[in-house]
Amino acid sequence: MTSSPTERAPATTTGAGEYLHGLDLLRVIASCAVVLTHLSAWFALNHEEFWLAELVERGLVDPLHLNPRLSFLGVALFLLVSGVVVTHVADRERPLQFLRKRVVRLLPLLWVVTALAWALINLGLRVSAEREGPLDLGDLLSGLALANFFQSPQVALAGVTWTLQIQVAFYCYVALTIPVLRRRPWVPPLGLALLSFVLLLLNNGVQTAMAQQIGKLGVYLPVVCIGQLISLAHSRKVGPVAATAIGAVHFTLFTWADKVGGYTFQGEAMPRTLLVATLLVVLLVAAGGPVSRSAVVRGWSKRTYAIYLVHLSAMYPLYDALMPHLDHTLVAVLGLAWAVLLAEALHRWVEVPADRAVRRWEKRRSAR
């Protein structure tokens, strides 16, 4: 979840120069939900109980009838936030410039974490729900290009990167429709609903890895597009009634795809989870209180892409090694701390230098 966590909050809204602090807070909530989901999943996979997982089930999952372990909530938030941010920045960038910036900023951290996961798997360690066998150089290259999910059998590597495929597809669609988005902003979201419907219709029942991944685009692109509609409504480029109506079409598509089956795998409450995530984004996108404005939230938000990509590779090998021997709470905290340290290192020494290099390159190009 790049937003996914790959995008920064927009610096302005409708022209008042107001920073959307609420997006920082939403990223923090999303990162907590994703990490908590995978922390709880480790105990479920190993048929063990953990007090925090039980607390989440009793306090949130059961009352709200969400997916077990809050599955999909964090990912849904990241995808929605990505739709909000990408739509904002598209308003001031040329199509090719927009696409180049998005993809180039996504790649460096993806490449480093994918290589790390590949190395850990070849050392016999688990970095996802299932243990992978030894991987070759071709598997690494496919993971670096996000092509590993099109393989049969699939090679997960950094398993959470499946959401980056959704984001890249959305980037491409936005880049193609930027001219229309500026003149008739309601048209691209409506067009994406039709495209998603066609993708689902053509790939329904086709049992190939390629069809499965293309079908997933039809399922999850509507989630990002709901974020786009929230952005357009917030900036008053699309009226709230029209935005709600088109958003309802995308929500219906997502619900239909979930009922058809074959694409969603996180639980039986996918539509309800998406609804809760959407309401959270609508309520918090313009939040400006002391919590959303705090330095902690701002700094945490900048590191959510690194946290999102590396937390499984940090937590699962450590849990597999230490859980049988030490107190569960202690090991859980150690795993979280190790994930935070790795994410901080990746942010400081990979993400920030890469972002600065891209900015310098863009300045040189614009100066020519």
UniProtKB/TrEMBL annotation:
InterPro entries assigned to the protein according to its UniProt record, in alphabetical order: Acyl_transf_3_dom (IPR002656), Acyltransferase_3 (IPR050879)
Superkingdom of origin organism: Bacteria
Gene Ontology CC annotations of this record: membrane
Domain (Acyltransferase): residue spans on this chain: 21-343
An individual GO BP term: polysaccharide biosynthetic process
Keyword entries, A-Z: Membrane, Transmembrane, Transmembrane helix
Keyword field contains Transmembrane helix: yes
Record bears the keyword Membrane: yes
Molecular function GO terms recorded: acyltransferase activity, transferring groups other than amino-acyl groups
Membrane-spanning residues: 25-45, 70-91, 103-121, 155-174, 186-202, 269-291, 303-319, 331-350
PANTHER family named among the record's database cross-references: ACETYLTRANSFERASE (PTHR23028), ACYL_TRANSF_3 DOMAIN-CONTAINING PROTEIN (PTHR23028:SF53)
Protein name: Acyltransferase 3 domain-containing protein
